[in-house]
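Table S2 (text version). Query chain:
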Amino acid sequence: MSSKSRKKVLLMGKSGSGKTSMRSIIFRNQLAADTRRLGATIDVESSQIKFLGGLRLDLWDCGGQDSFMDSHLTSQSSTIFRSVHSLIYIFDAESPDLTSSDTHYFLKCLGALRDQNPINSDTVVESAGGADPAEGEEAEGQGPTVFILLHKMDLVPEAQQSSKLAEFEADVTKRATESGWKGNLKFYGTSIWNETLYKAWSIVIAHLMPSLSSLRSHLSHFLELSSASEVVLFERTTFLVISSVTAPSEAEDAEDWDKRRFERISTMVKAFKLGCTRIRSPFSSLTLSSPNYTAVLDTLTPETYILVLARNTIQPAAIELNIRLARPHFGKLEAIGMSK
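Corresponding structure-token output:
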């Protein structure tokens, strides 16, 4: 399997920061309330996850206890940090050591990542404030990207969340630059109790996806042919957002739409699917109607779901027919991606 279709991703952070909980919610379909029973990660837990286009994600969940972190950075450094595509580092927003020992270990991880992937020396620091998943494609030759999640933001008063993230981003970026790091840094505030977790992980997964811009162009063509207002593509298992397009004619109205609508949909539909599973009733599709819009959520390919939003002048049956007619085309695109 080529390196482009198999990507190694490290999930790191101090013990108790929430790494295993978010991994269980995103990849194991657990509810946030059920993660309280999870134990701490011992040493390293590696798992392989299949995604759209033949992408294989090698996710390494690295234990965050001090003894394990010291081992990761010394005797295991070449094993853990070599050939890494991306690092996802989790900080506990309420940790008393957030700006001291927690950041100290992070900077040491950056040093190990730089030493094992020297191509980082040629890259430029980027501070992400909200990159669109559709723009998350990897730039060839840039080396690992670092995603920094300031987690458990629900414990921070809502009025202080934005300023806390901004201050933390500025401080960590400054210290990382002073330590010699020249690679990408992308910051997001997250919580397992709301859609911010899906927003951040959608961007991470979109960053790993091959040929995302090509897929987006095909979605735009589908949107135009079906006279839809908006089209959203979800990964089938995790229900993370892969890409989305909005009709130019809806641009003015879209300014007033919920900016987190896609991630809210991910959260709700995944919970609904879990409910269907528990009563042994398989989930296949969903149709919703309002006075102004009709939405149809249905399978597009073996690896994706598609959500089509249209004015209520378009009947649900017409949307369902367009999705059915589009399946062979998008199935071929997926097969092409898997063959690369």
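Notes on Table S2: Residues 212-339 form a domain with the Beta-Lactamase fold (CATH 3.30.450.190). The chain has ten helices and twelve strands.
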